[in-house]
Amino acid sequence: MLGPHSTPDVDSSSSAGYAKSTNGSRGESDITATSALGHSGHGQQSLDRTAAQFSHVDIADPGALEAELQYERTHHSNYAVSARLSEGAARVISSGIDNLDRPNVLRDEASKYSLHDSGQVDDYVPPPDLLPIPGSFSAVVRTNLRVTPPDHWQDVRQITLHIHTKRDPQTQERIEPFYKPGDVLTIFPKNFPEDVQALIDLMGWGEVADLPFEHHSRQGGGIPGIPNSPRPRNCFPLPDSTLRQLLLHNYDITAIPKRVFFDQIAWHTNDPMHMERLREFADPKYTDEFYDYTSRPRRSILEILQDFPSVKIPYQEIPSIFPVIRGREYSIASGGDLLKEKGTDDLRAELLVALVKYKTVLRKTRQGLCSRYIASLKPDTTINVMIGDNQGPPNESRHIRAPLLAIGPGTGVAPIRSLIHDRLSYPVCGENILIFGGRNRKADFYFSNEWKDLGVTVHTAFSRDQKEKIYVQDVIRQQASLICYLVQKGAIMCLCGSSGKMPEAVRQALYDALVIGGLAPNAEAAKHIFNNRVECWEEVW
């Protein structure tokens, strides 16, 4: 609850929704980008237009599929236009409105989804205030560079941070930040002033927006009127925060809400139709409607409140209704000789971050909260970060001397780079072999300029550079003799990248390689050999 130096008593009870990142979850957990379109110029198409048009789905014959989609768009029985304009029309489609769009495939013309503003950043960025987050360090952004071409469908950033030492507030002892391969760095995003102002205007909070507040949540057992009662869990506001500052720094107004959110806000409308609709979304009987309205189009809390303008939430209820902004974890991409910045005591950390920005079937640009925040960070900006001690690869001397087989599609190469730099900092280390997967050699071959200088043997799989799709699994089978050699040499293996089907597909390819290479008579024997001879480290998210 909120109040100017006091906490009024209110009726409804709920808890601030806080979702803690699970182990293995990295970076922007708002959503994986399901669709982002490049656009063709005058005579020059983008590097990855077909891949962007059909998102992450591999299409055997994109031209034939597009012809099919065009037929569906123009056929007299197509409900696309009417369903988007009317819920009644949507109901005649058995699977709901989003049946108009196959999973991860856009059914409208590609040009309608073009992200013309991919390279732009917001003019009004979040304030630079550093929150008192326990265990965090202050870090200065030194570089924030886009490493994919401007016309590539995905904006990937290489970010360099200098992390400062600090003093323990109790003992005044010097605390030096440190990380090892496999560790993660947490960035704490903020809301943007324009969104916060839009919410303040919509709710009618203008008169109290810039007054200092004490805020408490029933989730934490807060007692109205008692200043020291607990705040919402993992909420660390600035001293004497105003409502505006809390909305900028602490409460997530762009999250995709859970079902309980609709039940909570239904109490704060006098419009019978709005109340009925909100309670339907909160009712488990209407799961499909809830999913179609929230998860499919990725509607944020702010957008939902704009859809239901009759809802007026009392400002005292903010801690009980809005979730707390949580930090996003990113695998650290540096190590070894890159740990320290010469001439300073700062710890150096590099990140490779794929920004989440895409367009939905509603043709509305979506951007992850942390992605938008990261895109806005300019050099010399100071931010809060936290270093997470993650379960990294084995690093005993025998492991350093052993060969390394690293498999890293896309930005999954980040923790692999950290490991390789760390291994090379030892007097003697085994050979380093990388199997890298991407879409285009010219667009997303990350760190390509440094692998040769580091003495890394790289085998690549670029799925979109030729007619036939090639993936890391195919390269593993092609390099069956090499895989068998590495297993016999006692190599360690690390696999990093997206979770889902990829890790299992890679493991199956490794088993197949042992059979193809003659080290095992069948898949079962290959699995036994691999699991008993090879030490594996997986970092998937």
How would you describe this protein?
The protein is α/β, with parallel strands linked by helices. It has four domains: 2-24 and 192-321, NADPH-cytochrome p450 Reductase, Chain A, domain 3 (Up-down Bundle), CATH 1.20.990; 49-113, no CATH class; 137-189 and 327-388, Elongation Factor Tu (Ef-tu), domain 3 (Beta Barrel); 397-540, 3-Layer(aba) Sandwich (Rossmann fold). The protein has 20 helices and 17 strands. The chain has helices spanning 49-53, 62-74, 80-85, 87-91, 193-203, 243-249, 259-265, 272-282, 287-293, 301-307, 318-321, 369-376, 397-401, 413-424, 441-444, 448-451, 472-478, 480-488, 501-516, 523-533, and strands at residues 2-3, 137-146, 156-163, 166-167, 174-175, 184-187, 214-215, 328-331, 347-354, 357-359, 365-367, 382-388, 404-409, 432-438, 457-462, 492-497, 535-540. The strands form five sheets. The protein has a six-stranded antiparallel sheet, with helices on one face. It has a five-stranded parallel sheet with strand order 15-14-13-16-17, sandwiched between helices. The protein has a two-stranded antiparallel sheet with strand order 1-7. Helix 19 (501-516) packs across helix 20. The longest helix is centred in the C-terminal third of the chain and has 16 residues, at 501-516. The two termini are 35 Å apart. Mean pLDDT is 79; it is low at 1-60, 72-121 and 220-229.
